[in-house]
Each structure stands twice: as structure tokens, then as C-alpha cells.
Amino acid sequence: MPAQILNEKRSFHRVFYTANACLHSQGKAWPCQVIDLCLKGCLLRFPEPWAGDLQQIYTLQLRLSDSIEIDMALQPAHSIGRDTGFQCVHVGIDSISQLRRLVELNLGNSDLLERDLLALVETAAT
Fold first, then answer.
1. pLDDT, tens digit, 9 for 90 and up, residues 60-111
2. What 3-state class would DSSP assign to 118?
3. What is the maximum alpha-carbon separation in the chain?
4. What is the pTM of this model?
5. Between vectors from CA 5 to CA 9 and to CA 37, what angle results, nearest 5°?
6. Which domain CATH number covers 22?
7. Which of 46, 61, 102, 116 shows a CA-CA span of 20 to 30 A to 21?
């Protein structure tokens, strides 16, 4: 599914990628819709305004196909109405590889992806 690029003054390029997903924490699950993704987080839309704990770590499960899934540990960063932005606090090697490929395909420019990867490494080092 093609995605649109949202270019703002950010360290990471976000791509619009609309897909159903599920957010999990402490035995609870919240169905949601992914609005956009980047290497450092995502914007999710919920059926109701977000009322979860802003200090909690959540796990996003995004199924790209029957055999490909992205799992990310996230923490809420901001919430407006039904849309909540999450910052990635951890992603496994398999999931980051799938996320990298998804962003690369939708950016259509490997130089932009390399810049995002460099920014990711720099933020991890600080």
C-alpha cells in the first residue's frame, strides 16, 4: 500500500501508512489504527480518546502480512482527541529490519533513509 511522506522539521521522515494494529500492556489490549510511522515512533488513532497511562510502556503489534509483523515498545508522547503520538523506546532487530524496509520503500529515496538511520544512531548514543 503506497504511503505519503509527511515532511516537517523533524529528525525522522514519517510516512503515512494506514493499517489496523493493536497496542498491549499489562494484559490489556487496545485496537487502533496506525496513521503514520517513522523509525522513532508512530501516530495511532483509537476508537475513543486515549485514556491510558502516559508513563506506561506499551507494545504495538503491527501485522504487515501473514508472516511479517512489527513489534515496538512505545511510550505516549502526546495526545489530541483520538490521535496519540508514541515514541519508540525499543524495537527488536527483526522488527527494525521490517520497519526500515517499509520506510525505505515509501520514502523512495535511500539517502533520506540513511539520514534517518544516522539520526537514530545519534539519539541512541546520547
1. 999 888 888 889 999 999 999 999 999 999 988 888 778 777 777 766 655 5
2. helix
3. 40
4. 0.71
5. 85
6. 2.40.10.220
7. 116
